Amino acid sequence: xxxxxxxxxxxxxxxxxxxxxxxxxxxxxxxxxxxxxxxxxxxxxxxxxxxxxxxxxxxxxxxxxxxxxxxxxxxxxxxxxxxxxxxxxxxxxxxxxxxxxxxxxxxxxxxxxxxxxxxxxxxxxxxxxxxxxxxxxxxxxxxxxxxxxxxxxxxxxxxxxxxxxxxxxxxxxxxxxxxxxxxxxxxxxxxxxxxxxxxxxxxxxxxxxxxxxxxxxxxxxxxxxxxxxxxxxxxxxxxxxxxxxxxxxxxxxxxxxxxxxxxxxxxxxxxxxxxxxxx
Length: 279
What we know:
Elements: H1 3-20, H2 36-42, H3 48-69, H4 73-115, H5 120-130, H6 134-148, H7 153-163, H8 167-181, H9 186-238, H10 240-247, H11 249-278
């Protein structure tokens, strides 16, 4: 693909986005967007069309930079396609981890409301009003919204639990639904909610301990991932034949893209294994 063709595609994309911009908020993407839940948890305030517009801009910029430095445009465009999704999922994961503490506090506040003689719905409502974490409030607020519209509270809680992305939140909401379906009195329901809060607090302490024990290992993985490209750059500067190979067609089209892909796959696999250990 020539530079003129790339410029023509970029201009066509810009014109198309300009024509669709006034109707971006009125049109929804068909099906389920793969980043929809991640964007919602990360706090993305705009439409999915605008998110895809940012991705398209990243692709165009990456293609232009690849053409200017002689890097394979296909590899640069592929990296630009997946980079926004990786960033959104990483930010969503951080927000979910932060919201777990807010969920524990919300459940504790619900337990206190039950012990003071309030019903479960009223205790949940007051706990939600006192919480400042939107991700922690969302599953319980959705259940109360369905309850206010006429659905039984246990069914509303189960419906909200089925939509929760965090397994711990799903467990807490489902346990509350079991308590409502069993028609427990206030003191028994407070004991059940307290047990849920104790379980959430235990898992938080367990996660902190696992993170503390594996922090050194994760630092070593990142250090090893940084050593390889740094050593390659050093050898390319000190060994002219190696530098010529990496700067040649074989290096630009095969060696460098393959090395970058292996680095990214290794880091993502390590993070995925660590996240699976915490579940």
